[in-house]
Specification:
Radius of gyration: 40 Å
Distance between the termini: 134 Å
Shape: flat
Structural class: alpha/beta
Order of helices and strands: HHEHEEEHEHEHHEEHEEH
Number of strands: 10
Largest sheet: 7 strands, mixed
Number of helices: 9
Strand order of the largest sheet: 1-10-9-2-8-7-3
Oligomer: single chain
């Protein structure tokens, strides 16, 4: 017979089984040494010979990126001088030949201040728009100082020669001196008083366009900081002092402007129905006050100046025509 049955047919079955169990036990011990505890019936508290790494891998420094960053920081912005060129860099020509042209192919026209004001008045007549519409300016400032310092964004109030508003601003004076309060009332203050006004302001029972104070009142006005915010009296803005008549004269008829988005000033300077001389005088007063916030020896403070009315197109103008010349300042 080729195939027989019974124990005699498999004489080495027990031997094979013992061999298989020995191999499996050896594999289990090897796994325990290499990978930590396994989920078997073996005791987890028994000591195990786990491998220990006695060194740490050091992360390689990428020197190339640091060197590239250092090179980029040293690179200065390339300034192309268009002087003595037959055409501006990247443009088609200095002046278009036809009346209809694509603006991006030619340099933007920058007008003189008086010419720009005359053009705004002509736009109003041609478009039949309101003659008393407001006139705005948009300035971009160079806020850089020495090294890495910058001019902090500021809020300023300037006395324009020809008032823009028909009504005077309401001014509140903080003082606890009865004599100073009387002087404030005589000089046109809407409200004058001490700490008793704080709660009324917090409850919106009293409001004003400007708030001025004597130095002694500042510690008591701390609860109003969140309420008044930018209108809170500050010495930098000229709203803290002992000369109450002078502060009232400024803030009753003064015009306030501020730096927005780090380097831009957008503010009204006049109405279009004013004479050209009055618009020019208001513009000059505001530009001179703007330039007073940065040292003159640092170069031009105004990088770009735009003037426009409420319904007209924007016109780039030369701000240096309005500002006093360096020779005049020295005299």
């Amino acid at each position: 017979m080729l195939f027989s049955h019974g124990p005699a047919a498999f004489p080495d079955m027990a031997t094979c089984t013992r061999t298989v169990w020995k191999v499996l036990a050896g594999c289990q011990r090897q796994l325990l040494r290499a990978g930590g505890p396994a989920y078997t019936g073996t005791s987890q508290t028994a000591p195990k010979n786990l491998p220990v790494r006695t060194f740490a891998a050091v992360k390689a420094l990428k020197k190339g990126k640091k060197e590239d960053a250092a090179k980029d920081s040293k690179k200065e912005k390339r300034v192309i001088d268009d002087k003595d060129r037959h055409k501006p860099y990247g443009k088609t020509a200095w002046v278009p030949v036809d009346d209809v042209y694509i603006m991006r192919f030619y340099p933007r026209t920058t007008y003189g201040v008086e010419d720009a004001i005359d053009m705004l008045k002509n736009f109003q007549r041609l478009d039949f728009t309101p003659h008393n519409q407001p006139v705005y300016i948009d300035l971009r400032l160079n806020m850089k100082l020495e090294k890495k310092k910058k001019v902090d964004p500021f809020v300023s109030t300037v006395h324009v020669p020809h008032p823009i508003k028909t009504e005077m601003n309401k001014v509140l004076v903080f003082t606890e001196d009865p004599n100073q309060a009387k002087v404030a009332q005589e000089n046109g203050a809407a409200f004058a008083g001490g700490a008793e006004l704080i709660q009324a302001i917090l409850d919106d029972e009293i409001s004003a366009d400007f708030y001025v104070a004597v130095p002694e009142m500042l510690p008591k006005l701390v609860p109003l900081k969140n309420k008044l915010r930018k209108k809170f009296p500050k010495s930098k803005r000229g709203s803290v002092g002992i000369n109450i008549p002078k502060m009232l004269a400024l803030f009753k008829t003064g015009h306030e402007y501020m730096v927005e988005s780090d380097c831009y000033i957008r503010t009204q300077i006049a109405t279009l129905d004013m004479p050209k001389e009055n618009i020019l005088a208001n513009l000059q007063a505001i530009l001179i006050d703007v330039c007073s916030h940065r040292p003159a020896d640092m170069g031009p403070f105004i990088e770009r100046a735009i003037i426009a009315s409420h319904t007209s197109e924007a016109l780039w103008f030369k701000s240096e025509d309005v500002l006093p010349k360096p020779a005049e300042e020295k005299e």
